[in-house]
Design goal:
Elements: E1 11-14, E2 18-22, H1 30-34, H2 39-46, E3 53-58, H3 76-89, E4 95-100, H4 102-113, E5 117-123, H5 132-142, H6 148-153, H7 161-170, H8 175-180, E6 186-191, E7 196-198, E8 201-203, H9 206-211, H10 213-218, E9 221-226, H11 237-251
Parallel strand pairs: 2-3, 2-4, 4-5, 5-6, 6-9
Antiparallel strand pairs: 1-3, 7-8
Length: 253
């Protein structure tokens, strides 16, 4: 698996066909980080896709085989520049992007900054009304004691500060105008029970998407709610991949 010298991102490409970049929770070093126990999750994503999609997985940000990024450098501008650079290194000119949670927030920024996206899939993050201020506050509160699931992926506790940098860079982003201008086909999916509480701060995700459903539909979004699932639905590829694949097959035919 190569390392892009421009971005310092370690990446892997599998499959043939339409270019598709999938972000977290997938990564190039997924098996090395999580072990064989979670291999069915990776297989559950890739096996139904590789017949028609050329899938790009990345170790990002500063995970797996990728180079370090200073926590104070992880702004939205930096993230978008890095992902566009690694897409170019992989031979992707125009490509579909699929991200979950933080990776979905990244997808919005990419779609607002480039015309290289052929389709956009967001999971577990509201395109409109997103709780940027609340999650920034929660991130600051958790820095002294990040959850073990974060430290499983990150190199150190110090690296957790990168999320404060990211969400700080999002404050004041003209969300409504930027989202309205996204021209590529777009989908958002979420677990119906996907609201969170982080460090005592309510982080409404599912309920915000439902509140904006009509507006999203009017703007051309495909909105898919997965009943009875929480924010962790991203680890259930059997529930997630079929509706996303159907969307991508339709809009990229």
């Amino acid at each position: 698996m190569p390392l892009d010298p421009t971005s310092g991102v370690f990446y892997e490409v599998q499959g043939q066909g339409q270019p598709l970049l999938i972000g977290l929770p997938l990564m190039a070093s997924f098996t090395a980080i999580f072990g064989d126990e979670l291999q069915p999750v990776l297989d559950g994503y890739l096996q139904p896709l590789l017949d028609r999609y050329r899938v790009l997985l990345v170790d990002y940000p500063s995970i797996g085989g990728s180079r370090d990024i200073a926590p104070q450098a992880l702004t939205a501008d930096r993230v978008c520049a890095d992902l566009l650079a690694v897409a170019s290194a992989a031979g992707f000119d125009r490509f579909a992007y699929w991200g979950y949670s933080w990776g979905a927030a990244v997808g919005l920024q990419l779609a607002a900054r480039t015309d290289r996206l052929s389709a956009l899939v967001l999971g577990g993050w509201p395109p409109l009304g997103a709780p940027y201020a609340g999650i920034l506050q929660a991130t600051r509160l958790k820095q002294a004691d990040p959850e073990p699931s974060s430290l499983k992926v990150l190199r150190s506790k110090e690296q957790y500060r990168q999320w404060e940098t990211w969400y700080s860079s999002m404050q004041g982003w003209p969300e409504a105008d930027s989202v309205q201008r996204i021209a590529c086909p777009k989908m958002v999916f979420f677990g119906s029970d996907g609201d969170l509480v982080e460090a005592g701060i309510p982080i409404r995700i599912a309920s915000i998407i439902r509140e904006h459903r009509d507006e999203l539909l009017q703007q051309g979004w495909t909105v898919h709610e997965i009943t009875g699932q929480g924010h962790g639905v991203c680890m259930a590829p059997g529930l997630v991949v079929p509706p996303v694949r159907a969307f991508l097959d339709r809009v990229l035919a």
